[in-house]
Amino acid sequence: MKAKNFYWMAGLLFLIVVVCYVLVVYLHVSNAALSLMLVSVGLVTFYGTMGMGITNRHRRLSKYDIRLAIVISLITVYIVLVGTVVFFTKGGDLPPIAQTMITHFTTVVGVMIAFYFGAEAYEAVHRSAEKPAEDEDGAAEEK
Question: pTM (2 decimals)?
Answer without folding.
Answer: 0.66
